[in-house]
Write a structure and sequence with these properties.
The complex is a heterodimer of chains A (307) and B (245). By secondary structure, chain A is an all-alpha fold. Chain A is built from 13 helices and two strands; from the N terminus they run H-H-H-H-H-E-H-H-H-H-E-H-H-H-H. In chain A, helix 1 runs antiparallel to helix 2 (29-53) and helix 2 (29-53) packs parallel to helix 6 (157-180). Chain A starts with a helix and ends with a helix. Helix content of chain B is 38%, strand content 24%. Chain B has helices spanning 40-48, 70-76, 93-104, 119-132, 147-160, 177-190, 203-209, 227-232, 234-244; strands at residues 2-11, 14-24, 29-33, 55-60, 63-64, 78-81, 165-169, 195-199, 212-217, 220-225. The model of chain B has no long low-confidence stretch (mean pLDDT 91). Chain B is globular and about 55 Å long. Classes of the chains: A mainly alpha (307), B alpha/beta (245). Chain A binds chain B through residues 177-178, 180-186, 188-189, 192-193, 195-203, 207, 210, and chain B through 48, 50, 69-72, 74-75, 79-80, 82, 86-91, 95, 98-100, 102-104, 108-116, 118, 121, 157, 160-161.
């Protein structure tokens, strides 16, 4: 068995065992924390597809987290609470937004790409703030969590937890398949040497745009999950701080690695929780820690696990 | 096969290509020689589609390709190698060639099957590596290969495109004497099987490989002809060969 496969078996067993253990210890809070980590791991995994494998430094990936969450919130506001409708709408809305944003941004590169993706996301952020009907700056509580014809109750913390676990593993697996497919090879090769790709006949733009749309759609799913997780939507989900967090998860965990985004998301949120317990100025400690981790783990946390 | 008329490209006051007329016949190896700064790379970059000419036209296999971009021309069968090595460093030699094989096997919007386990890509790539003499180095990361091996790899990638016309930009650049001899020997095996444009500094290589030679001086073709005629031409000797011999 490869180390990668072993890694995922251990991760699955540990995460599957977490709810009963946490309940037995009388610490249901950990179920909530792990669920949030898994949802953000999905978002980070989607960002890794374009950032890690595609070399597109998108500083606006939170746009899709926010858009996915608002799709759920707004449909719920108008009485559509079925997840069968909400979640596909969230995913498709994000795919469409990513297609529009990507169509413009991918024509640029380097610092311009970073800035233009940031600008688009800020536009969505301010749009969220201006929507008084949906709570404006303060955001809005969901009328109800998404419903699934009585098959699944997201109000039940444990069943929602297992749904997130299943979807996270699915997102990781789908991404793994994509980056090793013909499509993924073009994406990664073009990151490695764009001139060479053009010379052998690949037009980079269409492959990059497609990856951008897939990543947006996948992050839209994370957004729909996040809205149900907090039972609350706020424009802050699409803020540049959130985009930066996602980027950091990918870089800390290890770009262009299968396990990186998950490790990065978990490490960042766990560090945050521990430090918050010590001091309210936790960010002063977290910042330098992150800098050190980037300096010393050049290939990210995944490099340590060889996963 | 390839016909170029009045190709012109300027950088400010510098005319890097100055009304170049040029033609490659089916199956011919046509060498382009010229001293540094004569505009050889500018010329080949326009043929490949990496640079747009200011004026003139390029007709490839009966089609005007002047306005087409490089990826499109590559798919039509115009394959180039680079003067400065350009390979995928983070990938193995086999991956590099397999990617080129993939490039000519239709679109790559296939999202699920593992490309590295696809015999349709791996087997032709293996054959090509054997052909250029890199068979034993298939699993080596391109970043860890020698300069000479990179040149061989580039040729394998160009051949993987099943080109109708090969554009070789100084394939011997930076090679040791022994590596050069091996590369010349290998290029001789390609002669006649492919139409080739060979841009090269190494006069020995040019006279051994070329069917015809064009001499580029300050962006102009001052002479085109068989190797013996070029060697004998007083104008060429004065403008170019004289400096070297």
């Amino acid at each position: 068995m490869t180390r990668g496969a072993l890694f995922w078996i251990v991760v699955t067993i540990v995460l599957a065992a977490l709810p009963p253990v946490a309940s037995a210890l009388g610490q249901p809070f950990y179920i909530d924390l792990a669920r949030r980590m898994m949802i953000l791991a999905i978002a980070a995994t989607s960002l890794n597809l374009i950032l890690g494998y595609g070399g597109m430094v998108s500083f606006g990936h939170a746009a899709y987290l926010g858009l996915g969450a608002y799709a759920v919130g707004i449909l719920g506001f108008y009485g559509v609470t079925s997840g069968w409708a909400q979640w596909p709408v969230a995913i498709v809305a994000c795919a469409v937004a990513a297609a529009a944003i990507g169509a413009v941004s991918i024509r640029t590169s380097g610092i311009y790409f970073i800035m233009i993706t940031l600008a688009f996301t800020q536009m969505l952020y301010y749009l969220g703030i201006s929507l008084e009907l949906f709570g404006g700056d303060d955001g809005m509580r969901l009328r109800s969590r998404s419903t699934f014809s009585g098959l699944l109750d997201l109000g039940n913390a444990v069943s929602f937890y297992y749904l997130c676990l299943a979807l996270m593993l699915l997102a990781v697996y789908v991404t793994y398949r994509i980056v090793n497919s013909r499509f993924g090879m073009v994406l990664r090769a073009t990151k490695s040497n764009e001139a060479r790709s053009r010379a052998i006949g690949f037009s980079p733009y269409r492959y990059r745009l497609t990856a951008f749309v897939i990543a947006g759609a996948m992050c839209g799913l994370a957004g729909a999950l996040y809205a149900n997780h907090t039972n609350y939507i706020t424009p802050g989900l699409a803020s540049w701080v959130q985009s930066g967090d996602l980027m950091f998860m990918v870089i800390l965990g290890g770009m262009a690695s299968t396990a990186g985004p998950l490790l990065g998301a978990f490490a960042l949120l766990i560090a945050e929780e521990i430090l918050k317990g010590w001091t309210e100025h936790w960010q002063v400690i977290l910042g330098p820690l992150l800098v050190l981790s980037v300096i010393f783990f050049k290939r990210g946390l995944a490099g340590i696990f060889h996963a | 096969m390839l016909e170029v008329r009045g190709l012109t490209k300027s950088y400010g006051a510098l005319r890097a290509s100055d009304g170049i007329d040029f033609e490659v016949r089916e199956g011919e190896t046509h060498a382009v020689i010229g001293s540094n700064g004569a505009g050889k790379t500018t010329f080949i970059s326009q043929l490949a589609g990496d640079l747009r000419p200011d004026a003139g036209r390029i007709v490839f296999a009966g089609e005007d390709v002047t306005q087409l971009r490089a990826p499109r021309r590559a798919r039509m069968g115009l394959a180039r190698s680079f003067q400065i090595t350009s390979v995928y460093n983070e990938f193995s030699a086999l991956d590099n060639v397999a990617l080129a094989v993939q490039a000519r096997s239709g679109h790559s919007f296939r999202f699920w099957r593992d490309a590295r386990r696809d015999p349709k890509l791996r087997e032709p790539a293996h054959r090509l590596l054997d052909e250029v003499g890199l068979g034993a180095r298939a699993a080596v990361l391109a970043a860890n290969m020698s300069h000479g091996e990179h040149r061989q790899l580039e040729v394998a990638m160009a051949l993987a495109l099943e080109p109708r016309l090969l554009l070789l930009d100084e394939p011997m650049a930076g090679m040791g004497a022994e590596e050069s001899q091996r590369m010349i020997g290998f290029l001789r095996t390609l002669k006649g099987r492919y139409s080739i444009v060979l841009v090269e500094h190494d006069m020995d290589a040019v006279f051994r490989l070329a069917d015809r030679i064009s001499v580029l001086v300050y962006g102009r073709v001052i002479a085109t002809g068989a190797p013996e005629a070029i060697r004998a031409s007083a104008e060429v000797r004065a403008a170019y060969l004289g400096e070297e011999s």
